[in-house]
Amino acid sequence: MFPTPAVDPALIDDFVQWLRTRDFPVDADLFPHLVESTLTNLARGRRGFRATGWLPADAHVLLDVADEVAAEPSEDVEDVAMAIVASALTFLNYLDENRLWTGTEENLIHCIEDLVQFLEPQSPILLPEDIALPAVNEEDEVRALVSLPVITTLAALVEWVGAGVPVTSTKVPKPVSLPDLAQALGIDLAVDSEGFPRARKIRSMRDVPEMLEYWETAEEIGLITVNSTRAVPGPNAELITDRTTPALPLIRAAVTEYVRRQLVSAQRDPLDPNHLTNMVVTQVILAGMTSEPSVAASDGERFDDEQSFMDAFVHDRLDTLVEQQWLTMDDAYRVPAALRPAVLRAVQLVSSEIEYAESEALDSDITLRISLEGTHIPVWRRIRLDAALPLAALHDIIQSAFGWEDSHLHEFSVGPAYSGGKVFIPAEDIAHRDVVGTAVPEEEVAVGLLLSSVGDRLTYLYDFGDDWIHHIEVESVDDPAPDSPAALCLDGRNMAPFEDSGGPWGWANKIEASADPHHEEHAEIREWLGLRPGQQLDPTSFDRDRVNEAFETLFA
């Protein structure tokens, strides 16, 4: 009857003292008032709100209010909106630093990131389709392309091949010929592309990546033809020295292929530095084809002691591209207009390769162990399924595997059930479901995008009354077997609970009552379970064939 106030005065007083001990450029009197007002209004908007344990939805409400304030046609309203958000962000940092946060770490990170995004909005991600190419005269384009070092080097490579040269079984020139080729291409074999002594002895052209890039580019566009024993001039060899517009498609293709090779990484791991660097560099290149190119850092900024490891990677890569002369740098990084058709095509190809690589992750079968939480005996199923199936199909699979009747609401979440983060639900439910976090249509997300590696986990919650929580974990990821079904039950243990049986506790009680003639609800429960006279419920029963028959019907 007397709920705890949303704002504890002692907490606000402590926040004020904390502010005054910090060298923050904030108003130590204004911020507490803003925070107190924010907490009060958030508490009015959501039952169960805790000042020390926000949900992401609380941050979203605050940001909606800040947006409304900023949209008012008055002076300084933007500063007011920023102050509201900044004070809330400072309060969350105070809670975190003083170990007063009582919510989940995931929710704290989510709230802080959302508020930071409002205060320091990131530049939108550019896509190749966002770039509008200028009209370029063909003669100007040819002139710009043939002036690039890559064209000069490719022409020197074709000249070096001459009538033909012997190659190894891996289709590259034999090691004995590499010094001669390096001299022709202007490559110093004593140092690597960064100017440092080579870390290993050169045993093959594959130990000299910058040389291999030219060789493979020449082969890719038909400047040379390579078989198992020799390399000879290819069908397009003569065009590399042509400076007229008929050679434009070949010259443009040469630059495109070479640039493409600068922007791809052998590593697909999203945390690999080369992969991350390529992503950042690609954004710089795309921005360099717009009216708002990326500003180039000064030498002083580059060598700041606080420069991050990733910044060093990015600057080094950009320096290399500038040396290749298809990216220029003055006050900003730019791609010259005449070179943009070739460079943009390279970025388009790289983007397509990344999308294809991601789709490859879906071209697999994954084996999942799906287990119910809280049952008195373990109830689980081992299912192998096509990773390309949507989460909506996984919902149907779980319903069939556990004998549910799909008569209640459900949701998938990456974190624990009811954690307030992103959930995946049917598209038709999004409009009327009161979801605390962000709702994503389950029909639009492939299972393999969330469960791609051994150990990945997902939570499936069915029936918000009984709270049947299913823990899903990847046990293996395999190449798809020929003619494998979309889903197959491999194993399992014990009977799944009946629908509407009252959750794990209620189900355990019904099993006990059905087996105990002296239980006061014995007859009623047996009738509810549909047991015939003398028939006993076997909680350990499990029929794998019956589950697979249900799967066959499901995917017929």
List keywords for this structure.
eight-stranded mixed β-sheet, alpha+beta, 556 residues, three-stranded antiparallel β-sheet, flat, 13 strands
Helices, strands, pairings?
Elements: H1 9-20, H2 30-45, H3 56-70, H4 77-97, H5 105-119, H6 138-146, H7 149-161, E1 165-166, H8 178-185, H9 209-220, E2 224-226, E3 230-233, H10 248-262, H11 273-287, H12 299-302, H13 309-323, E4 328-329, E5 333-334, H14 340-362, E6 365-372, E7 380-386, H15 391-402, E8 410-413, E9 423-425, H16 427-430, E10 439-441, H17 447-450, E11 457-462, E12 468-478, E13 487-493, H18 503-515, H19 522-529, H20 544-554
Parallel strand pairs: 9-10
Antiparallel strand pairs: 1-3, 2-3, 4-5, 6-7, 6-12, 7-13, 8-9, 8-11, 11-12
Please, could you describe this protein's structure?
Helix content is 44%, strand content 11%. About 3% of the residues have low confidence. An eight-stranded mixed sheet has the order 10-9-8-11-12-6-7-13. It has a three-stranded antiparallel sheet with strand order 1-3-2. A two-stranded antiparallel ribbon has the order 4-5. The chain is flat and about 100 Å long. It has 20 helices and 13 strands. The longest helix has 23 residues. The two termini are 56 Å apart. With 556 residues, it is α+β, with helices and mostly antiparallel strands.
Class by alpha and beta content:
alpha+beta
Strand content: 5-15%
| Span between termini | 56 Å
Tally of alpha and pi helices: 20
Low-confidence stretches: 266-272, 301-310
